[in-house]
Amino acid sequence: xxxxxxxxxxxxxxxRRRFRPIPVAVSFALLIAACGIPVSDGVELIAQExxxxxxxxTTSTTIPEADPTDEDAARVGLYFxxxxxxxxxxxxxxxxxxxxxxxxxxxxAGPQADEIEESxxxxxxxxxxxxxxxxxxxxxxxxxxxxxxxxxxxxxRIIVEEQPVLGRLIVTQIVCTALGLQLGDVTGIIITDGGxxxxxxxxxxxxxxxxxxxxxDFDDCKTGAEERAEAEDAEAEAEGEADGETDADPDTDADxxxxxxxxxxxxxxTGA
Length: 272
Fold this sequence. Notes:
Distance between the termini: 88 Å
Number of strands: 9
Structural class: alpha+beta
Mean pLDDT: 78
Order of helices and strands: EEHHEEHHEEHHEHEE
């Protein structure tokens, strides 16, 4: 059973009158009631680390998760960063009713332990900085664009200016994840932080964009896994061609003409 320690002296004297200190829990309840906030019948004790978060002005959020075997769960692609700063896609199941903002919260929180293990990669992280707090803003039907709003405390505007490579990784994660959701006719993303102008975005070739960013600006969100698969296919094809040349009859010339070996045996071959 958790107990609440009372600090200070048990009683105070002012002249001859005796005052008894009000218990901490009662004081807190009276303060909440005075502020007009409903007080529940029961008192819920919270852990010390949660207390610290409340005092520091931060709170932890619970990201919705679904059973991967649930057929009704929505499968959403979250884009993280793997080795060599390659984009990597993780498919996660979310329960029915999950909001798009909660998907961005999951992106900011990073990959889960089982997702990292299943990927087989040495590293798999999110580059979204703490305090960015991405969420969906308004859509512009004329430009077919969707705004993603971020908090200035995340300093994304400063990062894209002073650390452009890191800035592009962050932007790529947001753009590719956001455009993977059902956004109607939206084809591009702009990112705002409350400033007069949107945050400047550059594409995979470090070219500044003067319009909403789309998937094509980031090589159609090609992942490191896709690149590795293409490389393996190319290697296998090259090996197959090499094996085919090795298996060819060494006594047949390029034109498929008849040749005679040193024993005097004549062999006739037909050209392709």
